[in-house]
Amino acid sequence: MENLKIIEKLPNIAQYIKLRKMVGWGTVDIETARRGINYGI
């Protein structure tokens, strides 16, 4: 398992997709990731 770092800034799209994969939330396409960042965080 990779070490996680808690930070207070929005992830970029690649980071968001990687985070979802790491925690077992499944994969999403780039547009869905962008919406998730903009509306979900």
Global shape: globular
| Number of beta-strand segments | 0
Strand content: under 5%
- Average pLDDT over all residues: 90
* Structure class: mainly alpha
Query: Rounded to an integer, what's the Rg over CA atoms?
Result: 10 Å
State the helix count. Answer: 2
Largest sheet: none
List segments where confidence is low: pLDDT < 50 over at least 5 consecutive residues.
none
Order of helices and strands: HH
Q: Give the end-to-end Cα distance, rounded to a whole number of Å.
A: 24 Å
Percent of residues in helices comes to 40-55%
Overall description:
This protein has 41 residues and is an all-alpha fold. It has helices spanning 13-22, 30-40. Helix 1 crosses helix 2 (30-40).
Write the layout of secondary structure elements.
Layout: H1 13-22, H2 30-40
Task: Write a concise keyword list for the protein shown above.
single chain, 41 residues, mainly alpha, 2 helices, globular
Can you give me a brief rundown of this structure?
The protein is mostly helical. The protein has helices at residues 13-22, 30-40.
